[in-house]
Write a structure and sequence with these properties.
about 325 residues, alpha/beta, D-Maltodextrin-Binding Protein, domain 2, six-stranded mixed beta sheet, three-stranded antiparallel beta sheet
Length: about 325
């Protein structure tokens, strides 16, 4: 056996110790510059608003400026693709949700990042429920009534609007259509802000919309809310049942969610520190109140392992829905 062969295990061990030491040193120095949180939606959206709330808190805790950078586009995928290529040092983070992290890899023929391999979850802090809303002119007061009306429409199917094909809203209604065996035409909108106006004006029959975007109109009785897609009722919408209650599908839940991610190779000590800070922030009563005011549901702090397990289960679930509806690789 040569001297090189004898020394090789020692050299490997030494290299490993050096690498571990460098990682530990980087974690101790973190953060060493400004932190950027990339948001895949425009400024002023619910996702953006919540991010700015906790960005301020992270800035206080970490002692460095935390900048929110909006990178909307490509069905939430532009931001994810960009952050997947960022330096994995904890200074560039990503806010993302179910479409980009649990749906699009099955729905699209090709995407420029791997949700499972390119990111590590830090915190899941909010769920975004949807409302099935109907034009008041329809005169329906419940989900079963709505689908009974749709079934009676014969050769002229009623329609529903969403913010686009392949969104969670679209998939949710397709699941409901399948449950009730009722045809409904899908009307995708580029500008989802136009949907409530067209609903009030009777240009469309119904929509699956984000709760926060339409809750004020529901309270003013300008549109009718038939069911909420979360597993628990919305405290701000007394009398509006969950879809699980309205359909009899006991465990039915169709929500998006907001989570903070880091590039996958980010040192574990940095990820752990960010997770600890986000757990503290997400557990704050005032933060939870502000999340509810936007129309979302705050999620209690949980372990990184639990968050990852939930996201993996969502990926499997929505991937299965996309396949069962024949939409795999359709975009």
């Amino acid at each position: 056996m040569s001297m090189l062969q004898l020394k090789w295990p020692r050299l490997l061990a030494a290299a490993s110790l050096i690498a571990c030491g460098a990682t530990a040193a980087a974690a101790q120095q973190y953060p060493s510059k400004n932190i950027t949180i990339v948001v895949p939606l425009a400024a002023g959206t619910g996702m953006d608003s919540i991010t700015r709330i906790y960005a301020d808190e992270l800035q206080k805790a970490l002692g460095r400026p935390v900048i929110v950078e909006n990178q909307p586009g490509v069905a939430l995928m532009l931001a994810a693709a960009n952050v997947s290529k960022a330096e994995p040092d904890g200074h560039t983070l990503l806010v993302s949700s179910a479409p980009a992290m649990a749906v699009n890899q099955t729905l699209y023929k090709k995407i420029n990042y791997d949700p499972a391999k390119d990111f590590v979850p830090i915190s899941l802090y909010a769920k975004s429920p949807f409302l099935l809303i109907a034009a008041p002119s329809l005169g329906v007061n419940s989900l079963p009534e709505f689908f009974a009306r749709a079934k009676a429409s014969g050769d002229k199917p009623m329609n529903y609007a969403t913010s686009g094909a392949g969104t969670i809203q679209h998939l949710t209604m397709e699941l409901l259509k399948r449950h009730y065996s009722v045809p409904l035409d899908h009307v995708p909108y580029r500008n989802s802000n136009q949907i409530p106006t067209d609903l009030i004006g009777n240009h469309i029959n119904s929509s699956v919309s984000e709760t926060g975007a339409v809750i004020a109109l529901v309270r003013d009785n300008q549109i009718k809310a038939l069911a909420v897609s979360s597993i628990e009722p919305n405290a701000q919408l007394a009398g509006v049942p969950t879809m699980a209650e309205a359909t009899g599908m006991k465990d039915f839940e169709a929500v998006s969610w907001h989570a903070l991610f880091a590039p996958a190779a980010t040192p574990t000590p940095i990820v752990e520190r960010l997770h600890a800070e986000m757990s503290r922030i997400a557990g704050n009563v005032d933060f939870q109140r502000r999340v509810r005011e936007i129309g979302l549901i705050p999620v209690a702090p949980n372990s990184r392992e639990s968050v990852n397990k939930y996201i993996v289960s969502e990926r499997e679930r929505w991937g299965g829905v996309v396949k069962s509806l024949g939409l795999e690789g359709s975009m």
